[in-house]
Amino acid sequence: MAHVKVADELCTVSLPAALLGERWTLLLLRQAFLGTRRFEDFQTSMDISRSVLTERLGTLVEEGILRREAYKDVRTRYEYRLTEKGLDLYPVLMALRKWGDRWMSPAEGPSFDLHHRTCGGDVGVHVACEGCGAELTARDVRVTPLRDSPA
Amino acid sequence: MAHVKVADELCTVSLPAALLGERWTLLLLRQAFLGTRRFEDFQTSMDISRSVLTERLGTLVEEGILRREAYKDVRTRYEYRLTEKGLDLYPVLMALRKWGDRWMSPAEGPSFDLHHRTCGGDVGVHVACEGCGAELTARDVRVTPLRDSPA
DNA sequence: CCCTTGGGTTCGGATTCCGAACCTTAGCTG
DNA sequence: CAGCTAAGGTTCGGAATCCGAACCCAAGGG
């Protein structure tokens, strides 16, 4: 497995990585998947500074991952909800959780459980071959650069 | 889906999120999975400053995700290799790539392809119920807090 | 014995982050 | 209707990070 050099701008890993690898963003998404929707709730649940929260929510809205929507409670409020694009990040968060469960779990175990709503089964994340169905690790996958690397 | 508040320190998503959601870390891991191993190669392929690279490699080694190893080329060199813990992050990176392919793909498409080494099939990432096998989205999953939230 | 290469460390300046205080709009209270 | 409060931000100044460039050092090679 030789060293493969790939232009950053063209890689479909590095683009999301640049976005999600920004401080707070992953935590913010975790909260969103847990059902947090309002500015104040994000702020208190994550203990993030208000100015940074404003900015992060803004970029996630710009990126189309969250949608800012006004609604009427007792008065007009705003909520940030996951768009389809945002909901589609679920496998990323689940993969992260699986890994965290295995490698960074505190002694008491995870702080919440996830189960299939209808049958109660555990949630699994699998990397598998679409052809033969085999479970895949990094070693089972061949990388083929599609464009010439710029060096 | 009510707002679920969970202590940050206890969550198996937020711990890895804090680590991977640090600038450069995800990109560094991407490079590692592509086969990059040496300090110089990381530096030039990601265009990261040397001081920050030193620090990031250091924390990943501390966390047991990379292992720093001396080896003899024409002289003694060092390489940073993924440990088992590191290799186990593969599903996270694959989930990220799948998402990037769908939502952030540049016009020319991804810059490299991945295929099952033995059968040539595409690589898939799936969140599925371990019980009934159904493919799951965020909406199909019930969240159950295991410890009392501190507020 | 000097040059190059890999793998860092050490600066100063530029960004980003943070906490605290402030602003604005609405409803609610007396 | 004057004043209070809550949500949802903005706007500071200081602290922590990041960056590029320069420097350091050990091991070969010529």
Portion in strands of chain A: 15-25%
- Total strand count of chain A, please? 5
**Alpha-beta classification of chain A:** alpha+beta
Number of helices of chain A: 6
Helix content of chain A: 25-40%
Strand order of the largest sheet of chain A: 1-2
How would you sum up the global shape of chain A?
globular
Write the layout of secondary structure elements.
The structure is a homodimer of 151-residue chains.
Chain A: H1 14-20, H2 25-34, H3 39-46, H4 50-62, E1 66-72, E2 76-82, H5 84-87, H6 90-103, E3 112-116, E4 123-129, E5 141-145
Antiparallel strand pairs in A: 1-2
The structure holds a DNA duplex (30 and 30 nucleotides).
Q: How is this structure best described in words?
A:
Two copies of one chain form a homodimer. Chain A is 37% helix and 21% strand. The longest helix of chain A has 14 residues, at 90-103. Chain A is globular. Chain A contains six helices and five strands, in the order H-H-H-H-E-E-H-H-E-E-E. Residues 1-10 of chain A have low confidence and may be disordered. In chain A, strand 1 and strand 2 (76-82) form a beta hairpin. The two termini of chain A are 18 Å apart. Chain A has 151 residues and is α+β, with helices and mostly antiparallel strands. The structure holds a DNA duplex (30 and 30 nucleotides).
Key words describing this protein structure:
disordered N terminus, 6 helices, 151 residues, homodimer, globular, DNA-binding, 37% helix
